Amino acid sequence: MDINYQFLLKTFYLVLAAVPMTLNITVVSLLIATPLAFYLAVVRLRPGKYLRRLISAYVTFVRGTPIVLQILMIYSVLPSFLNSICKGFGWEINVFDWNPILYAYIVFSLNTAALLCEVFRSALGSIDKGQLEASLCAGLTSWQAYRHILIPQALVVALPNICNITVNLIKGTSLAFLMTVKDMTAVAKVAASYGYNYIEAYMDVFVAYVIVCSAVQFFFNFAENHIGKFRLIKQK
Amino acid sequence: MLKITNIHKKYHENEVLKGVSVTVDKGDVVVILGPSGSGKTTLLRCLNFLDRADQGEMEFDEYHLQLAGASASEVRKIRQKTAFVFQNYNLFHNKTVLENVTTGLTIGRGVEKQQAIEIGRKALAKVGLADREAYYPSQLSGGQQQRVGIARAIAVQPDVILFDEPTSALDPELIGEVLAIIKQLAMEGTTMVIVTHEMRFAADVASHVIFMADGNIVEEGPPEEIFLRPKEERTRSFLRRILPPMEYNI
Predict the structure, then answer these.
(1) Are A230 and B156 within 8 A, CB to CB?
(2) What is the mean pLDDT of residues A55-79?
(3) How far does the CA of residue A155 sit from the closest CA of chain B (Å)?
């Protein structure tokens, strides 16, 4: 097996230059998904049958289908759908001109929201209901109780799972090339296709993902130790 | 000061409170006794809306409201006039001891931080835990945690403190330290409603004793009446089972 080291290095820089795109999709999707997921989780924990069933159906639907399929569905169905809506209202918007990254945001946000919803639900559910009662008795509103007492405790429980989801999301964004978004994987594949240097390109992408994902995991470990102070002391 | 009239509460088909009325005046120490399942804890929880009563009225100083229909802001006002000490402490796990005591002041009542810390330190000193303010609840013994729970209650200077079996989750060795503090509060004239199984303590601190069974008040009166000359057979049989024949000393 001959390895074209020059190509290997050159492509590695290309891949590194595409890291911001991968992180862009990841961060924007997380920023959209987190509040949405939190809202869904709180609704699921409250009494009220219909909304709860709707959310649970949504979660089942997202978890029960491969993300590739979700991407293909959204990327092929949504533009046509939006287009017919725009036509129906007489708006002169060409949805097919939109930057494909918008569709990437939509797919990954909807997907991550469903997964995070389950994480938040289980984390909030693991907090003893006495904590809420004690907060209310101390004169806090229920929003203040969530903000200062319940969420900080639930977050420590949820962080390892949020880390999992984030890392999976980063890796999942490699499928964005299906929507012609130029992320790390897409850039490498395009570069490889000119001279059929796929092995080198894949090695580059491999290393780049390991670096990015390790950094994220390091960050989450740090965050967990920091906000989980009150638990770590107990373990000593 | 605080008057609850004709309170009813049902869990599904199970009627837990069947028309109970309680009056608490300033400086009173009302002790509620009774076998388990008699509705004592539910009564206490209905007083500050942790459980919502199905029916009943509350008069609390200037407030006059229906227990079943009280609005969220009314509920919060009542809660700000009261404090609650839980059976299993329920300290905020993510807050230090001092923060546990000051949270109700800073976040709940908008007191300035420095002032809240001062009040909090005084409250902790009162329960003998001034040197533990930087600890987390998980680093304290059960007795110490409950003392922090009491400090958290007195820090907000409530009109009445509600105690829900404050010593039931404690080792027998640690019960004494908690009871001593409650007793001291009683002597200082703090208004309290206490649900407890500690009979000698009840006889000691109570200014008024309520004996409940099956969701009703069977008998109430000053402690010497209830403990030494109970009128109802139900009270007598309960006390006989719980207490060896005792003498009441003041």
Answers:
(1) no
(2) 91
(3) 11
**A8-54: per-residue pLDDT in tens?**
899 999 999 999 999 999 999 999 999 999 999 988 888 778 888 99
**Helix H or strand E encompassing B31:** strand B29-33
The pTM of the full predicted model, rounded to 2 decimals, is 0.85
A22 close to A183: Cβ distance less than 8 angstroms: yes
Q: Which residues of B touch A135 (CB under 8 A)?
A: 92, 103
Which residue of A124, A131, A137 to mutate against B (max B Cβ within 10 Å)? A137
Residue B215 contacts residue B16 (beta carbons within 8 Å):
yes
Query: Per the CB < 8 Å rule, is B76 touching A141?
Result: yes
Nearest CA-CA distance, residue B176 and chain A, Å: 24
Tokens, residue A184: 């790390």
In three-state form (DSSP H/G/I as H, E/B as E, the rest C), the secondary structure along chain A is: CCCCHHHHHHHHHHHHHHHHHHHHHHHHHHHHHHHHHHHHHHHHHCCCHHHHHHHHHHHHHHHCCCHHHHHHHHHHHHHHHHHHHHHHHCCCCCHHHCCHHHHHHHHHHHHHHHHHHHHHHHHHHCCCHHHHHHHHHCCCCHHHHHHHHHHHHHHHHHHHHHHHHHHHHHHHHHHHHHHCCCCHHHHHHHHHHHHCCHHHHHHHHHHHHHHHHHHHHHHHHHHHHHHCHHHHHHHC
**CB contact at 8 A, B31 and B202:** yes
CA–CA separation, A167 and B60 (whole Å): 55
ipTM of the complex: 0.92
Residue B64's alpha-carbon distances to A104, B52, B57, B196, in angstroms, are: 57, 16, 7, 28
CATH class of A5-235: mainly alpha
Instruction: State whether B80 and A139 contact (CB < 8 Å).
Output: yes
